[in-house]
Amino acid sequence: MAGIEHRQVDGDEAGMRLDRWFKVHFPGLGFGPLQKLLRSGQIRVDGARAKSDTRVQPGQTIRIPPLGVDPKDSKSGPIAGRELRNSSDAELLSRMVLHEDAKVIVLNKPAGLAVQGGSGVSRHIDKMLEAWTSQKGEKPRLVHRLDRDTSGVLVIARTRGAAQQLTAAFRERDTKKSYWALVKGVPRKREDRISTWLVKEQTPDGDRMRIAKHGDEGADHAISYYRIIEQAGQNLAWLEMEPYTGRTHQLRVHAAHIGHPIIGDPKYFEADINWAFPGGIQNRLHLHARHIDIPHPNGGRLRITAPLPPHMVQSWNLLGFDENAAGEED
Fold first, then answer.
1. How high is the mean pLDDT of the chain?
2. Contact 287/149 with Cβ under 8 angstroms?
3. Beta 5-8 vs 61-64: how paired, if at all?
4. Which of 319, 257, 258 is nearest to 286 (CA)?
5. CA-to-CA distance for 156 and 103, rounded, in angstroms?
6. Among 26, 31, 136, 271, which residue's CB has the most CB atoms within a 10 Å radius?
């Protein structure tokens, strides 16, 4: 690059972090050099200084000083080796990234996007990750999953070794996951433990879990914890939920089991005839994987929090819920 360049942010890049924008357009630019350019003010957005986590918007102009790397050159940099075989997949994934290093990627999965393939699923995270296959032919690996309609934290391993360590951490329950949910009504207890047996059954609408008895064929023990953070009268409650076990649809079934199904749940929400869906709240699943605390393959622990999806932000605003009320600690 001979001199200073100015580029406009495209329409499909709305909300992308600035460091991800550079990763998409200049994959050869290392993390360190990018930070140095940001700190010194050589990179600017609409003429103003910016930080790594600045969210860019369509039409904004990014000032790009001489970088010494070619656009789309993916052969250098700390996350080197990506081949952008499918740019739309790569760019969509880039907008989801909450954390990225040489071993681990953490995404904020949008609601409605499947993690893995299945009947009638044409686009899913596992397939999209092929866009991030390394030059060695190593594709990032899933180490756990979220339901299609659940948004939030999804951990991806970048190497085979990291996948083994992260999978073991989930299996041995050396992880702590917390979810935010909006449920019908208000549980009698402010916090409680839910313990049941669950069994999977096939239905015309796909797999469904039901409460079972100890000893029933195929039944697995499931334990969840919840606490009420805020409530809107006696109509709705914001719960923080933690699954101790990791059964399919566990939190959704447990919420329904205690008489407080998750708002917008297409499988487990069965409202009585006198219950009206709250005006202004979208009829979409209000379950979000908010936070994860997991051992990092290189040592120490990785603690990541995911912002709420748009439909839950809308509901929180409508109900006057304050996200700070959860008292989270990163």
1. 87
2. yes
3. antiparallel
4. 319
5. 9
6. 26
Among 269, 267, 277, 266, which Cα is nearest to 235's? Answer: 277
Q: Which residue has the tokens 């992880």?
A: 175
Q: Which residues are catalytic?
A: 147
Strand pairing class (287-295; 151-157): parallel
Distance CA 207, CA 200 (A): 7
Cα 124 → chain centroid: 13
The pTM of this model reads 0.73
Q: Judge contact between 106 and 99, C-beta under 8 A.
A: yes
What is the residue extent of each domain of the chain? Answer: 1-68, 176-326
User: Pick from 224, 239, 318: which is nearest to 279 by CA?
Assistant: 318
Each residue of 226-264: pLDDT tens digit? 999 999 999 999 999 999 998 999 999 999 999 999 999
Distance separating alpha carbons of residues 206 and 238, to the nearest angstrom: 28
DSSP type of residue 262:
B
CATH number of 176-326: 3.30.2350.10
Dist CA 127 CA 98 (whole Å): 19
Higher pLDDT pick, 225 / 266:
225
pLDDT at 72 over 70: no
Specify the amino acid at residue 93.
L
Indicate whether 82 pLDDT > 80.
Answer: no
